[in-house]
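## retry 2 of 3
previous attempt timed out at serialization; input unchanged, resubmitting
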Amino acid sequence: MSELNGTSAPSLNDVAEGLLGEELIEGGIANEVEGDKYLTFRIDETSYGVEITRIKEIIEYGGITRIPMTPPSIRGVLNLRGNVVPIVDLAERLECSSGEVSRRTCVIITEVEDEGDVMDIGFVVDAVEQVVGIHEDHIEATPSFGTKVKSEYISGMGNINNKFVILLDMDTVFSVTELATLVEDAME
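## retry succeeded, writing output
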């Protein structure tokens, strides 16, 4: 455990055990999963997935400092062990609705690369679901229609037990250049 604004930042297993119950443990964290591993999470009633290798940590929602004159998709910044980490409202960024902040609301910290620069960015989700393995042959191409999310943000559609999970392209969703442009536009 590490310190975050005087509170403990839980590890992935702590989140699984404390916030989500045994279902997540049985779903893959404690057991070996096959295929590429994805962390799945929910925004509103839709499931999304991100490659687990892109996730640095998962922390409880809170301690976010709002920055004036920023667009609604930028919730603010978080002090993460002395580092300033911008926090993005993923629902707002994807232009979809999200639920109210609850005890299951989490901030997922990821690393994004933009024009050779690497940066930590946090994003808010309604709930973390599970870690799943998805074989390459169970990932469908990005549909050109039928999703609420811009197709360039989607790397594919993961088929898990005949249900689809939208797999996000983190570098496109969190393009540092595009986020900076949003902030500049909000300040005008």
